[in-house]
Amino acid sequence: MPQSSAQFDRRAAMSLMAVAAVAPGKVLADSGFAGWLTEFSAKARATGVSNEALKALGKAKFLSSVIKSDRRPAETARSLQDYIKSAASPQRIKGGQIVLSRYPTLLRKIERKYGVPKEVIVAIWGMESSFGAVRGSTPVLSTLATLAYEGRRRDLFEAELIAALQILSSGDVSPSRMNGSYAGAMGHTQFMPSSYLIHAEDFNRDGARDIWSDDPTDALASTAAYLQAKGWQQGQPWAIEALLPKGFDLALTGRVYTRRLRDWGKLGVTDVKGRAYSGSESGALILPAGPTGPIFMIFQNFHVLKTYNYADSYVIGVGHLSDRLAGGRTIQASYPKKPWGMSAKERQALQKRLNDLGFKAGRPDGVIGEKGRAAIRAYEQSQGMPVTGVPSTQLLAGLL
């Protein structure tokens, strides 16, 4: 889903683990919900939302199922191999090819206006709602009111609830049709209300920015408009699979370490066909499964896709699916059984120990991405060690 305030998706994912102090099975009772709703309605009225929208808000229900879903621990982290296998599965590729052939004129018009390839838009559509098949059926007002009342991210969800009321006030959708996910994301490509207000498009010019109906026109155009606004670079790939020369200094890898392609080429970095990189465009190297797994030279559009969903695996999934829909090859590198030469338990232990020491390595799920590598760099710097950001069993042993 496109992120709204302060990178919603990352904050939401992080907060899923903030329930350690809550006993399993205990969910906030709805006894005070009616009173909170009355108070919030007064706040909402002051923002100028319509009486019709406020009337709809008055019918919002406390949904314990939403709290249970939100508090459910994040699903066990999948390996990059499993994630890519799902993202670019034969079924999803076939589904993408079907919609590309079903909406050729529409997708060409969207691509021409916003400069975002049709395959990227279709890939996001497939990842977010299985091409519109799973758009969410939970009333958005009830969802957002429940999450705001629950309180762990009250400011965030109160702002999203106000945005949802503003959408109703605009007349783009009726309360009965404003349904979405348990987090309040809506439509074919799962917009949060605040993102909808800024980026939604009435592409078919019927007087409503309708991302909820069976017609995907406005939703797909809105997604392209969002990516364009976030800085999509027309004609630039999201990433290119890369190969590193033997003995390459892994300290040079990571999203923040950009340099010109010709300079990477001078260091011996090539594409998977062995061709040295050249040119003045800047890129960075990421190792999502460690140095023995797939390696990607990423560009500006990689970062643009991260504003839609912060997880690197999601971006790689969308990017690779879009490449396959455009006729590209599968990822050429193999996937290691032990990323970074460490077992899952060892990677989890490393993340946990770094967190315990005050270095924010993220949820200890065994997936050491850019945040984990940044934590390692910070630790190495604090100890006067060479700063590499490279996970290893030796580093773990030194932390224990």
Features:
single chain; 400 residues; mainly alpha; five-stranded antiparallel beta sheet
SSE layout and pairing:
Blueprint: H1 8-15, H2 33-46, H3 51-57, H4 64-71, H5 80-87, H6 90-102, H7 104-114, H8 118-129, E1 138-139, H9 140-150, H10 154-170, E2 179-180, H11 193-199, H12 217-229, E3 239-243, E4 259-260, H13 261-266, E5 270-271, E6 282-286, E7 295-298, H14 300-306, H15 312-325, H16 344-356, H17 370-382, H18 393-399
Antiparallel strand pairs: 1-2, 3-5, 3-7, 4-6, 6-7
State the gist of this model:
With 400 residues, the chain is mainly α. 47% of the residues lie in helices and 6% in strands.
Characterization of the model:
The chain has about 400 residues and is mainly α. It has 18 helices and seven strands. The strands form two sheets. A five-stranded antiparallel sheet has the order 4-6-7-3-5. Strands 1-2 form a two-stranded antiparallel sheet. A hairpin with an 8-residue loop joins β6 and β7. The radius of gyration is 23 Å and the shape is globular. The two termini are about 40 Å apart. The model is unreliable at about 5-25 (pLDDT under 50).
Largest sheet: 5 strands, antiparallel
Cα distance spanning the termini:
38 Å
Rounded to the nearest angstrom, the radius of gyration is: 23 Å
**Helical proportion, percent range:** 40-55%
Number of helices: 18
| Shape designation | globular
Beta-strand content bin: 5-15%
